[in-house]
Amino acid sequence: MEVKLWNDKRQRDLYDNFAELYAIIRTTEKLEKAYIRDIIGPSEYEVECQKLITHYRTLASTLKEIVPSIERFADTYTMDCPAAINRLVVSGVPATVEHRAASASQSATSAAAVAECVQNFITAMDSLKLSMVAVDQVHPLLTELSASLSKLSILPPDFEGKTRMKDWLSRLSKMGAADELTEQQSRQLHFDLESSYNSFMAALPSSGT
């Protein structure tokens, strides 16, 4: 005997939508696992994932009054599809798009840190040229430079500029605020700054890498 799950067209449409939502979640879970395991390439994954996300959004909008929580829907039907829930509900974009966004953000952050280092190098060298050689004038500039260099993860811990600035800060901390660098010390500091700046620029990755 055939058992009907609906009594009218509205109920039938509702069950059809439930079945479709169930299928989307299951398919997305399989797609995510296939991508993680390199069974499917990034380009194909992104196209298929975007289709599923678009389809899901349309369906979720239709069912929002009846299915306010997709997580609860998945629990009700014991689906156990965490990757799909994350992709469809939490992220809302394919993993490939997330990765590109993260890379762009990291690049922007690195570019800002590089610009800050360059500015601090130039400011410190220009200050010495203007005979700003008192400890309370030099120390803050080298502190800022040292801090900006430390923000850049592409530089190794033993990078020449880092070690030289630390050495100079150690020397300056033993002097009084009103003390001034001698002409020889000033020339040596400027030389160290220029040498460190050149090493810094050489250490930066080229645009093609």
UniProtKB/TrEMBL annotation:
Species assigned in the record: Trapa incisa
What is this protein's record name?
Vacuolar protein sorting-associated protein 28 homolog
What residue stretches are annotated with the VPS28 C-terminal domain?
109-205
Q: Name one GO biological process term.
A: protein transport to vacuole involved in ubiquitin-dependent protein catabolic process via the multivesicular body sorting pathway
Q: Which domain of life is it from?
A: Eukaryota
Where is it mostly found? other
Q: Where in the cell is it found?
A: Endosome
- Has UniProt tagged this entry with the keyword Transport? yes
**Signal peptide range:** none
